[in-house]
Amino acid sequence: MIFITAKFRVLPEDADRWPEIAREFTEATRGEPGCLWFDWSRSLDDPTEYVLVEAFRDDDAGAAHVQSNHFRAAQQSLPAHLAETPRIVNMKVPHDDWSALGEMAVPPKG
After folding, report:
1. Cα–Cα dist 69/81, whole Å
2. For residues 42 and 10, is the Cβ–Cβ distance under 8 A?
3. Of 96, 106, 100, which is closest to residue 37 (Cα–Cα)?
4. Contact 59, 47 (CB under 8 A)
5. How many alpha carbons lie under 13 Å from residue 87 in its C-beta half-sphere?
6. pTM of this prediction?
7. What is the mean pLDDT of the chain?
8. Pick from 77, 88, 18: which is nearest to 46 by CA?
C-alpha cells in the first residue's frame, strides 16, 4: 500500500474551521475505491497544525486520487487557508491494514 502522512499548518483564523473547510475533499477521498483510510488529527502542541494519515491500496489507487476532480478542486481551494506548504512523508509499505502494536498489547478483559 501507499502510506502517507502530511502536516498541514493552517492559518490561525481558519484552524478551528479546518475540518469543515476540508470536509468535501475528505469525504470524496474516503469514497474512492482504492482509499484505505484518510484521517485528520489536530496537533496537541500546535492548534494550527493538522496531521493527515492516509493510505491507498496501490500505485493505481494513488494515481487515481491525484488525478481526481476533488483533488484538483482541493489544490485550488485549500492553499488559501494554509500558512505554509504542507510537509509529507510518502512510502510504499508491504501491508494492507494497520498492525497491532505488540509492545503495548492490551490483555484480554474479563
Report:
1. 19
2. no
3. 96
4. no
5. 6
6. 0.92
7. 97
8. 18
Contacting residues for 26 by C-beta, under 8 A, at least 6 apart:
19, 38, 40
Is the per-residue pLDDT at 69 higher than 90? yes
* Range 69-75, long-range pairs (CB < 8 A, 24+ positions): 70/24, 70/25, 70/28, 70/29, 71/25, 71/29, 73/24, 73/25, 74/22, 74/25
Q: What grid cell was written down for 15? A: 484552524
Indicate the DSSP class of residue 89: E
What is the C-alpha to C-alpha distance for residues 75 and 6, in angstroms, rounded to an integer? 15
Cell of 50: 493538522
Do the beta carbons of residue 46 and residue 107 sit within 8 Å? Answer: no
Residue 110: per-residue pLDDT: 81
Spatial distance between the Cα atoms of 30 and 8, rounded to a whole number of angstroms: 18
